[in-house]
């Protein structure tokens, strides 16, 4: 208090005439400013901790008084360490910031995601691209309902069948690349380090494959990331993702470091090329589906009104919206499936008995194929052990879980619902083979649930089954021990090192 008085009197009297010669006017202004900001911050924190409407929810008062802690743990990708700890100390419902409550109770999660259909968190708005709401980011129910109605059929099982040849093309490139790398170990580089013969960084290679799959299906053009990693768009996407996350917690960054939207420029160009293409060049993919849906809406009289803002708010499929949604597919659909595949391979090489069992199942299902042929999706889609392995990996490492409000990872790792929860036991998903009681409903949410569940689930399952089965079918896979396996959780989950090496040999 005395310091404030001294500062104020220094300001009032002017620095030279002040009785306090040691404080100059600019210094005094700074002092005053800092003191006011500090006092207001402390007042707000006290209000948040003790008088806020959510103050009675259990949790650490200091953590709940500010967004600092949840922001710092989210930006460092380490929220999966702190939040489970908070649940251990305070129970299934914990307040982790002034207006963020983390829920790890089965019935409440169901209420949040399905029955209550609560709006998405404000964090999702960080993913607005090109100044457009989009399927992933929007918190507006009306917008979402309209947009989902237009986009969802592209991911129906029927339409996805037409994508199988495109996925096969990418898988063929992957196999060619692996064989090339096995032949010529000098080319096998991971993070600019030459790896020993037979060692392949599957984390990087699967990421590049998933990007090529989305490039082919959503933009009608592969990024050819499997061949080399020079295409600028995937790199720019990674930067955009990170920056949009930072901007959510630090909105001032929007002005200092705006998002690089060359991704949208690329999308615009691809849509233009596709629209100008001859009917004979037509191919079925996600991009074509959106273009056809747009035309259908126009023919039905439900097209754009011409008022750009109104059209955006109501979820109309404008040209800009088509571009934005294709960019969302790239963001939502590349790192997710590739990381899920990397984790599945990681668990398999760590559990060679499970890998052998999976191989036996795939060998049997594809016995009539020519040697080296890529399996057809019909041969794989109902294989219980393959699905069990993918589910088990998604349970242990839910790559795109909603981590702030509905703590689905907490359910996945709870001994109450999953005996020996930390172990990779694909059998738990197969009735009759499981050593445990059947998995309870509403305890498994890798693709979320309710109206905001993953629209790309069938696409991802098809891609993962095809790629994982092809790898298991064609290569012996062995663990390379001594690697880091810790992971970070930003918008999606990823290995902290961005690398996972597997020892591979053609069968
Ligand atoms: C293993 C792979 C995948 C996993 C685990 C996954 C998981 C999820 C989850 C948990 C959500 C809800 C996110 C939230 O509420 O914040 C979501 C939403 C979404 N995902 Fe996926 N996803 C995967 C692959 C894909 C693919 C391949 C695509 C597209 C090609 C895709 C497109 C989307 C979109 C557009 C949404 C927003 C849906 C909406 O709000 O209506 N995802 N995903």
From TrEMBL:
Cited PROSITE patterns: CYTOCHROME_P450
Binding sites annotated in the UniProt record for heme: 454
Keyword Glycosyltransferase: no
InterPro entries reported in the protein's UniProt record: Cyt_P450 (IPR001128), Cyt_P450_CS (IPR017972), Cyt_P450_E_grp-I (IPR002401), Cyt_P450_sf (IPR036396), Cytochrome_P450_monoxygenase (IPR050121)
Alphabetical list of Gene3D superfamilies matching this protein: Cytochrome P450 (1.10.630.10)
Cofactor(s) recorded in Swiss-Prot or TrEMBL: heme
Keywords assigned by UniProt, alphabetized: Heme, Iron, Metal-binding, Monooxygenase, Oxidoreductase
Record has Oxidoreductase as a keyword: yes
Signal peptide start and end residues: none
Family the entry assigns: Belongs to the cytochrome P450 family.
Protein name (Swiss-Prot/TrEMBL): Cytochrome P450
Species of origin: Lunasporangiospora selenospora
């Amino acid at each position: 208090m005395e310091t404030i008085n001294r500062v104020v009197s220094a300001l009032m009297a002017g620095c030279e005439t002040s009785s306090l010669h040691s404080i100059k006017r600019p210094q005094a202004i700074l002092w005053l400013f800092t003191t006011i900001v500090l006092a207001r911050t402390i007042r707000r924190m006290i209000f948040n901790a003790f008088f806020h409407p959510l103050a009675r929810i259990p949790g650490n008062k200091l953590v709940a008084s500010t967004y600092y802690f949840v922001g710092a743990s989210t930006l460092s990708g380490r929220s999966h360490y702190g939040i489970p700890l908070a649940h251990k100390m305070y129970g299934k419902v914990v307040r982790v910031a002034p207006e963020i409550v983390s829920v790890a109770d089965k019935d409440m999660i169901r209420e949040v995601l399905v029955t209550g259909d609560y709006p998405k968190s404000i964090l999702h708005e960080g993913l607005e691209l090109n100044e457009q709401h989009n399927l992933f980011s929007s918190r507006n129910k009306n917008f979402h309902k309209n947009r989902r109605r237009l986009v969802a059929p592209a991911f129906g099982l029927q339409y996805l069948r037409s994508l199988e040849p495109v996925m096969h093309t990418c898988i063929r490139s992957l196999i060619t690349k692996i064989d090339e790398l096995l032949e010529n170990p000098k080319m096998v580089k991971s993070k600019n380090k030459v790896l020993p013969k037979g060692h392949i960084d599957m984390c990087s290679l699967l990421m590049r494959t998933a990007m090529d799959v989305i490039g082919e299906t959503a933009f009608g053009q592969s990024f050819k990331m499997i061949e080399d990693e020079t295409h600028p768009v995937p790199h720019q996407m990674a930067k955009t993702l990170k920056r949009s996350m930072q901007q959510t917690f630090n909105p001032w960054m929007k002005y200092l470091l705006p998002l690089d939207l060359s991704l949208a420029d690329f999308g615009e160009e691809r849509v233009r090329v596709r629209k100008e293409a001859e009917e004979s060049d037509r191919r079925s993919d996600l991009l074509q589906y959106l273009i056809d849906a747009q035309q259908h809406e126009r023919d039905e009289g439900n097209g754009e009104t011409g008022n750009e803002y109104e059209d955006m708010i109501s979820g109309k499929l404008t040209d800009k919206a088509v571009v934005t949604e294709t960019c969302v597919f790239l963001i939502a659909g590349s790192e997710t499936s590739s990381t899920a595949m990397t984790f599945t391979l990681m668990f398999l090489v760590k559990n060679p008995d499970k890998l052998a069992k999976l191989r036996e199942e795939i060998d049997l299902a594809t016995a009539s194929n020519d040697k080296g042929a890529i399996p057809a999706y019909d041969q794989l889609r109902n294989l219980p052990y393959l699905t069990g392995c993918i589910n088990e990996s998604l349970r242990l490492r839910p790559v795109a879980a909603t981590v702030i409000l509905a703590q689905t990872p907490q359910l996945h790792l709870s001994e109450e619902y999953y005996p020996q929860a930390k172990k990779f036991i694909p059998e738990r998903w197969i009735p009759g083979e499981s050593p445990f009681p059947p998995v309870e409903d509403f305890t498994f949410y890798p693709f979320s649930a309710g109206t905001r569940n993953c629209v790309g689930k069938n696409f991802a399952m098809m891609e993962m089954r095809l790629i994982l089965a092809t790898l298991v079918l064609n290569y012996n896979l062995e663990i390379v021990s001594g690697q880091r396996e810790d992971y970070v959780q930003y918008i999606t989950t990823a290995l902290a090192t961005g690398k996972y090496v597997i020892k591979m040999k053609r069968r």
